[in-house]
Amino acid sequence: MERVTIPPRQRQDPAAYDVAVVGGGVLGLSIAQEFLSREPQARVVVLERDAVGSGATRRSAGLHFPRGSSHRIREMAALSQERYAALKAARPELPIHSLDMTVVAPASAQARLEETYLPQARLRPVREVAGKTALLPEGTAAWEGDGCQYADVQALTQQLARDLRRTVEFREGVEVTAVTPGADSVELSLSTGVPLHAGQVVLAPGPWLAAPAWKDLVSPLGARVKKIVALHIEVPPSVGDRAVVFQDEDAFLLPYHERGHWLFSYTCQEWDVDPDTVATSLTPADRDAALAVLARYAPHLIEHCVSGRVFCDAYGPDFEPLVRPLTADGRVVFAGAASGSGYRLAPAIAAETAHLLFTPSPGKDDVS
User: Fold this and answer.
1) Do 177 and 75 belong together in one domain?
2) Which domain holds residue 363?
3) Which residue intervals of 91-167 are DSSP H helices?
4) Same domain for 29 and 76?
5) Phi and psi for 196 in degrees, rounded to 5?
6) Using N-to-C axis directions, what is the helix angle for 153-164 and 26-38, rounded to 10°?
7) What is the DSSP string of 299-311?
8) Domain check: are 230 and 347 in the same one?
């Protein structure tokens, strides 16, 4: 794999970095970690307008299940599952928790599920949802599967940041106000008034696609921002309770064992929202839309849906993550728009991003 050679002028400039990652969420830190695994001596800086692990990362459900709607996403899910398993094996204290799952879908969906879910899911039909957490309406069936896990994504991100601080510089509470590509580096103007330069810049801004600093660079990608709503079901999960995935509704019930309650995520259809202005508290419309789905499968839980979380996420035009160069020389790269799967696919997105950073582009400095 090609490696970028940073020009001597940049090496002598104490303000110059090999890579600047804009965005301190789980994806931004995964990208920094992946880049350093390939180039351990590189100088990397992570910039975050708030605190590390804030934004969409702080409100992420953190559920990983082994499936994908396309060949690419299935490959990404498999890679991410492998990376998370290795990370947990090496660091047992990390807040990543294995979980069994049950998939509920139309009774005729067997072939479709076998194509969508990874082989390691080992889907097998069952007569009912374990623990009777959810009902099986007429015409539906259930399959149990493996390979599911969930994480406290904010806590995981903060622990990754703690580890990375040995080799990565962090700028928290620092907003990037302009991105100016140059002949041999990219200048980032900062809210502190002190700019920095980097050989390459990765924009991993989560739902902040329209930030003035990069709006014009990102808008041609066609990514959009959608409101995300999840209800907290104030019922303690029992030992052995499974995640229940409602396949056709793109919804799920997650037993948050570590938090002591359940979470119900459904697909909100409120698009083109602004993460800086969207209300972060539940509205009657939010709750009603979620309960309309939940009522079909778990009406006994409705009375316990008294709280929840609201946030935003970026979606690619084909509901697939975007990893794209934004400038002709490849110095500025966008990574994200994971369509609600930022945590689930972060290691794979990071791998694609690192590969792109190490791949020569016309007009980029000489590589060796």
Assistant:
1) yes
2) 1-95+152-222+317-368
3) 110-116, 153-164
4) yes
5) -135, 160
6) 40
7) GGGGGGEEEEEEE
8) no
Going by their DSSP bridges, the two strands 186-190 and 196-203 should be labelled as antiparallel
CATH of the domain at 273: 3.30.9.10
pLDDT in tens, the chain (368 residues): 344 444 433 344 555 999 999 999 999 999 999 999 999 999 999 999 999 999 899 999 999 999 999 999 999 999 999 999 999 999 999 999 999 999 999 999 999 999 999 999 999 999 999 888 999 999 999 999 999 999 999 999 999 999 999 999 999 999 999 999 998 999 999 999 999 999 999 999 999 999 999 999 999 999 999 999 999 999 999 999 999 999 999 999 999 999 999 999 999 999 999 999 998 899 999 999 999 999 999 999 999 999 999 999 999 999 999 999 999 999 999 999 999 999 999 999 999 999 999 886 655 544 33
CATH of the domain at 175: 3.50.50.60
Q: Which of 242, 315, 254, 316 lies closest to 61, judged by CA?
A: 254
Bridge pairing between strands 224-233 and 261-266: antiparallel
Which residues pair with residue 47 across a beta bridge?
A: 22, 171
State the total domains in the chain.
2
- The model's pTM: 0.93
HEC letters along 126-147? ECCCHHHCCCCCCCEEEEEEEE
What is the phi/psi pair of residue 181, to 5°?
Answer: -65, 140
